[in-house]
Amino acid sequence: MSTTLLIDDIGELTTHDESLAPETGGRLRDAAVIVEGDRIAWVGPAADAPAADERFDAAGRALLPGWVDSHTHMVFGGDRTAEFEARMAGQSYAAGGINVTVQATRAASDAQLGANLERLVSEARRGGTTTLETKTGYGLDVENEVRSARIAAEHADAVTFLGAHLVPAGADPAEYLDLVCGPMLDAVAPLVSAVDVFCETGAFDGAASARVLEAAAAKGLATRVHGNQLEHGPGARLAVEHGALSVDHLAFLDDADVEALAGSWSGGRRGTVATVLPACDLSTRMPLAPARRLVDSGAVVAIASNCNPGTSYTNSMNFCVATAVLQMRLTVQEAVRAATLGGAIALGMHEDGWTSPSGKVHGAVGVIRPGACADLQLLDAPSVTHLAYRPGMPLTAAVWRGGKRVV
Ligand code: NIG
Description:
Layout: E1 4-14, E2 27-36, E3 39-45, E4 54-57, E5 62-65, E6 67-69, H1 81-88, H2 98-107, H3 110-126, E7 129-135, H4 142-155, E8 158-164, H5 173-188, E9 194-199, H6 206-218, E10 222-227, H7 235-241, E11 246-249, H8 255-263, E12 273-276, H9 278-283, H10 291-297, E13 301-303, H11 317-326, H12 332-347, E14 354-355, E15 361-362, E16 376-379, H13 386-389, E17 396-401, E18 404-405
Parallel strand pairs: 1-4, 1-5, 6-7, 7-8, 8-9, 9-10, 10-11, 11-12, 12-13
Antiparallel strand pairs: 1-2, 2-3, 5-16, 14-15, 16-17, 17-18
Helix pairs in contact: 3-4, 4-5, 5-6, 11-12
The site of N-(iminomethyl)-L-glutamic acid has 13 residues, from α2.
């Protein structure tokens, strides 16, 4: 039997399990959690907690699920500081900047790409992120997309193939699309769990994006879409029509898009998660995605960092949550839910029994309840409200991933 750990004297416990506290949507005061191996074994009032082998005193602070960052691009070489400076001086963001990182990524060694990714993952863990997706998309040829997926799989919890990020400089668009949907997808498929496409002017139009989504589905892979980032386009609707797990960015939505996203969950169906990326919206000086409207409409919303060298060079989920509250007008509870359970739903990891590409069966992530994965973060604060009330402060006090203390 595994050692048991009692996390005791939790001032505020955010579980997202309404059966534990129906009136507060699963938020408990004066609570305790017992971890056994890599799973949660018990959750309830501290006064009722059974004995355990070890005890951690939370000293009245707030415990919540670790962040689930469902959208990052962290396999890359090079740097785009100059592009950021130009943007802050008034230039606008364009998809073409991706090619700068493609050149630098192709030129980087495996060791350099791996070390950069490891640095970013370790930064994210220190910030409370316990589950992390990352994408390929800066290789854009078969060799470099496979290399990116392999390196990603060594460090990330979920890997997404984004060969359809941009038509690389000098390539013919039709030939490149054939490559992405054919030999490139074949080569990368064993290493990834989903396929993504950047559906936007300057990247892939609606028809090309639909072809990528169909090719992925034919391979049995889940799908995601980057959509409605720089202008209104077909991305959100296309994602819903193709049953994508998520559509991400969403700064430019009309009423029909919002309705389609919310409606995708009707009748108990698995729908498409609307993932908003507040740090990206700020860093590109684009309008903020209408997260308030999405939540009010009944859409399932996730918040992710979109950490990448071009549009959002941060993996701080604390910052994203604070921005979602202060600027996008979500409540703190809504933002925390979107950055934990929302991300887990976007990755298909929110129910016990999901299987990783290695074949390992896992407990649910993004929630705290018996049977779920023991991915937890403790804030140096009495409640999650402090994430927005004290923006920018180092609030991450401790992090457990799969039951092991990592921070
Ligand atoms: O999600 N939108 C497309 N891809 C990234 C940006 C990549 C880049 O500029 O390097 C994003 O923002």
